[in-house]
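call fold(seq) -> C-alpha cells
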Amino acid sequence: MTLIANKHYHPSLQFVIFIAITIGVIGGGYLIGAAAVIALYGVDALMDIARLNLASPATVNALWVLQIISTTIPIIAASLIFAIWVVKDPQQYIRPSFKFPALLWVIVFCVMVISTPLIECLSNFNQKMVFPHFLDGLQRWMRETENQAEKLTAVLLQMKTISSMIFKLVVVGLLTAIVEEFMFRGCIQTIFTKWTNNAHAAVWITAALFSAFHMEFFGFLPRMFLGVLFGYFVVWSGSVWPAVWAHFINNGTAVIVSYLYQNKMIKVNPDDQHIFNYGSYLFSLIIVLFLLYLYRIIATGKQKMPIL
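ret:
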C-alpha cells in the first residue's frame, strides 16, 4: 500500500495526517494496554483506573502498564511512522543528529537549573487566573481536570526504594522526554516551520500545543515556557537532542526531588510554589536570556566549538 503523503505535500495536510496517525496509534495502544491490564490484573483493576481509585498497589502497577502501552509507545511510534514512512525524511522531521557543539549540553543544563524561579513565577500567575462569571463551568471543568492530573502524578511518583526511583527516572524522565520531543519539536515543529515559513511562529505554536496536550490548564504557562525553550534549542542547534536533554532535566529533577522529599532526605516540598522572591525572578530572567544568547551564538556557528 502506498501512503498518500510525503514531504512535498502542503504542511496543513501533513499536520492532519500526523494527527490522524497519532489518534489511531494511541487508540490501538489503549486497546492493547487495556487487554494487557485485564490479562495481568483483572477487569477490576481497569475499572479502578477509570474511577481513579488508585489505593491498591496492583492498580498502580496496572496504571503504569496502561500508561506505557497506551501513551508512551504509541507517541514515539506515530512520530517514527510519520517521519520514516509518510514524509520519508527522518533527518528533517526528527532531527536525530548529534553534530552540534558539545558545550550546548552544559548551557542547556544551566538554563534549566537557573530558569526554576521563572517557572515558579509563571506557575503562580497561572494559578491565580480567574475566568469571567459566564465561564464558571469551563473553569470548574479545568480545575477538575487539573486535580485529576495532579492525583495521577502523585500516585505515579510514589517512591520508597532506589530501584523505584530509577525506574521512574527512566520512564518519566528519559522515555517521556524522548517520545514527546520527537513528536513536538521533531514532527510538529517542523510541520509548522514549513507551514508558516517562520521558525519563531513554529516554536510558539508548537509550545502552545505541547502545553495543551498535557491537559493541565492551570500549569499552561510554565509548560508553554518550557516548550519555547525546547523549541529554540532545536531551531538553533538543528538537533532534537538538546531539547530531549532539557526535557529530561526538567522531568528527572521532579522525580529525584520527589523521592528525596518522600523519604525525608530534604525538607523542600516539590509542590511548594513559593520558594523564590521577585528578586530571584528578575535574576533568573536576566541570566536565562544571556544563556540563550550564548547558546544561539555557539549553536549557529559564530564561534567554533568542539563537535560531537
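The first helix runs from residue 11 to 41.
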